[in-house]
Automatic annotation (TrEMBL), chain A:
This is Polar amino acid transport system permease protein. The chain crosses the membrane at residues 20-40, 52-74, 86-105, 184-205. It comes from the Bacteria. InterPro entries: AA_ABC_transptr_permease_3TM, ArtM/GltK/GlnP/TcyL/YhdX-like, MetI-like, MetI-like_sf. Belongs to the binding-protein-dependent transport system permease family. HisMQ subfamily. Its main location: membrane.
Automatic annotation (TrEMBL), chain B:
It comes from the Bacteria. PROSITE patterns: ABC_TRANSPORTER_1, ABC_TRANSPORTER_2. Keywords: Amino-acid transport, ATP-binding, Cell membrane, Membrane, Nucleotide-binding, Transport. This is Polar amino acid transport system ATP-binding protein. It comes from Azospirillum picis. It is a peripheral membrane protein.
């Protein structure tokens, strides 16, 4: 047994990198998928709407922990595919992000008045151009505060990856705690680091909300 | 040949029939004003001309082409038939210039400098060249509606539809919009208006169409129609609109 040292603190901070990697993966793959889901949910085709809705219901009805377990422990059993933790966690976080961001963005798209589509159509714009230039920028503005809010959820959610042995901030906390036998101190520091990472985002989301509401 | 030929058009929303066999001709250069009580089907008819609403029966042709919501060249058609709405429907996140040039840039791929010149040209026609860099929220309702008209003009339409374009405006702002429309009428634009502005109908229109219960109840030149309404429905409408 040894006491908590600066080196332990630095190892916690460096584990924060892996938390960041998970967030980047979740956003990098999840955001395009979220856009696709939002478009499917608002499309005229019933088949597309139903497919997207079924996917969302399934994913949102399962806790993130369940998704992580499924992709890490379940995939080898069901599909015979062995996955390294980063891949399994990455897929679970991507699916989770896509479903929640997809719903937030759908709300943004639907909040733009129908007349805006109509006016754009009457100028002879293609459906894609109507969305790309007229609807999406307005939808994005409205969806930005809840999107940033979700980012905070996502950062905290990555801590669940520790369950499958992926060493990010929370898992690093467990390891340091086991080595130093000072769980109260270590976990308090871990919590403070999460808080420090999330606070600016929370403040940003709030200021965006005030600013955008004031603007229109 | 008529620019717009409407033959026996019917249209229902659910079980409510809003157009019950409407026929109407609009010739090039005509200013046709559709009047009538709310619920008479006048806005619906206007929206059918632009394929914003699907018709159930009959036929509408514009420049000899049958108008359908699934017509093959709908996008080209929409650029030839401009429409201005009651609620302006400008794009709030774009400057006046961008509102005007968006469609020409995307559809006709005109250059940026050309777009600026085009925007200045059509803005001059509605008296707002100095507002080219403003955002819609910085303009009054009357100015926004004039920008919406300019946005339409930038597509060089052959026909323009106006759907109660002054109804959402404060009374003191109505005049500036009507003046722009009068100028356009003088320059020979073919125009179809749904309006409650009886003064405009009387003084500028070349033809008045009175709709009642989903039908064209009476039509004719304004002088004749207002002086000698034949039906009691039009008589009471004129009396109440005064």
């Amino acid at each position: 047994m040894r006491s908590f040292s600066l080196g332990d603190f630095l190892s916690l901070l460096s584990a924060l990198q892996w938390t960041a990697v998970l967030v980047v993966i979740a956003l990098g793959f999840g955001a395009p998928l979220a856009l696709l889901l939002a478009l499917m949910r608002t499309s005229a085709s019933r088949a597309l709407r139903w497919t997207a809705t079924a996917f969302l219901q399934l994913v949102q009805g399962v806790p993130l922990l369940g998704l992580l377990m499924f992709f890490y422990f379940g995939m080898p059993v069901f599909l015979g595919v062995e996955m390294p933790p980063l891949v399994a966690v990455g897929i679970a976080m991507t699916v989770y992000t896509a479903s929640f961001l997809g719903e937030i963005w759908r709300g943004g798209i639907e909040a733009v008045k129908h007349e805006q589509w109509e006016a754009a159509a009457c100028l002879g714009l293609s459906t894609w151009h109507q969305f790309r230039y007229v609807i999406a920028p307005q939808a994005f503005r409205m969806a930005l505060p809840p999107t940033v809010g979700f980012l905070v959820q996502l950062i905290k959610g990555t801590s669940l990856a520790s369950i499958v042995g992926f060493v990010e901030l929370a898992r690093a906390g467990q390891l340091v705690s086991a080595a130093t036998f000072q769980p109260l101190l270590v976990y308090s520091i871990v919590a403070a680091i999460y808080f420090a990472a999330c606070l600016p985002l929370t403040l940003w989301a709030r200021s965006l909300e005030v600013r955008l509401n004031g603007a229109r | 040949m008529a620019l717009v030929d409407i033959r026996n058009v019917t249209k229902s929303y659910g079980s409510t029939q809003v157009l019950k066999g409407v026929s109407l001709d609009i010739k090039e250069g005509e200013i046709v004003t559709i009047i009538g009580k709310s619920g008479s089907g006048k806005s619906t008819l206007l929206r059918c001309i632009n394929a914003l609403e699907r018709i159930d029966g009959g036929e509408i042709t514009v420049e000899g082409q049958s108008v359908r919501t699934d017509m093959p060249n709908l996008r080209d058609f929409r650029q030839r038939v401009g429409i201005v709405f009651q609620a302006f429907n400008l794009f709030p996140h774009m400057t006046v210039e961008r509102n005007i040039t968006l469609a020409p840039v995307l559809n006709k791929r005109i250059a940026k400098s050309e777009g600026r010149a085009l925007a200045l040209d059509v803005l001059a026609r509605v008296g707002l060249a100095d507002k080219i860099d403003a955002y819609p929220a910085q303009l009054s309702g009357g100015q926004q509606q004039r920008v919406a008209i300019a946005r339409c003009l930038a597509m060089r339409p052959h026909l323009m539809l106006f759907d109660e374009v002054t109804s959402a405006l404060d009374p003191e702002l109505v005049g500036e919009v009507l003046k722009v429309m009068e100028d356009m009428a003088r320059q020979g634009m073919t125009m179809v208006l749904v309006t409650h502005e009886m003064g405009f109908a009387r003084n500028v229109a070349s033809k008045i169409v009175f709709m009642h219960q989903g039908r064209v109840w009476e039509e004719g030149p304004p002088a004749e129609l207002f002086a000698n309404p034949r039906t009691p429905e039009l008589q009471s409408f004129i009396a109440s609109a005064r």
